[in-house]
Amino acid sequence: MLLDNEAVRVAIGLRLGLELCVPRQCHCGTQVDAFGRHAFVCKKAPNRSVRHHALNQRVARAFSAAAIPNSKEPLGLCRSDGKRPDGLTLVPWQSGRALLWDVTVVCPLADSYVASAAREARSVAELAATEKEDKIKNSGLAADYLFQPIAVEILGPINESASDFLSLLAKKISQRSGDERETAFLFQRVSSLVQRYNSVLLHHSFIREDYSE
């Protein structure tokens, strides 16, 4: 859960609305201002998918720590858009049904979200979670499985149902480990992962010149 100095600088700068870099052009061709916010919404940022897989891996590990067998991106389960859910428990989670989950990270500082984010905390995470739920409903998977969207904003907030879900999962881990701090540990791991990748995404938006001769 250790963050390096640059990750801390970026985290504080995002929270306080400080300038993070000099204005420049992103490798995708878009002009980036001094706040660097384009780095967190750039469609060509390769590390967005890396961050997604890392977050999904974190959730899968939490299930494993609670002795709940699970499968990431299970084969044979496709949504209406052709994509697979991020994970599936291989035993019933509740009411005799297994649980599907899907993770996403959203930027409340994006132009399309900033008005909603200014009105209510974690509203952007709730919007993203609702979109995930609608996709599952349209796919027909909701009839056979429970579904839990996990939407995390780059500033930290998580949608309410995911927060409750992670708390319950952490309690199951505590029952096995005997450590009552598992809830705090799980949320800290998720938060530190997102903040670490904020720094990575910012730096990967810089155009790197090849100075080799």
Describe the structure.
This protein has 213 residues and is α+β, with helices and mostly antiparallel strands. It has a domain at 45-190: Trna Endonuclease, Chain: A, domain 1 (3-Layer(aba) Sandwich), CATH 3.40.1350. Helices cover 45% and strands 12% of the residues. The protein contains 6 helices and 6 strands. It has helices spanning 5-16, 47-65, 114-119, 123-139, 160-177, 182-204; strands at residues 24-25, 31-32, 70-72, 87-89, 99-106, 146-153. The strands form 2 sheets. The chain has a 4-stranded mixed sheet, with helices on both faces. β1 and β2 (31-32) form a beta hairpin. α2 (47-65) runs antiparallel to α6 and α5 (160-177) crosses α6 (182-204). The longest helix has 23 residues, at 182-204. The radius of gyration is 18 Å and the shape is globular. It starts with a helix and ends in a 9-residue tail after the last helix. The model has no long low-confidence stretch (mean pLDDT 90).
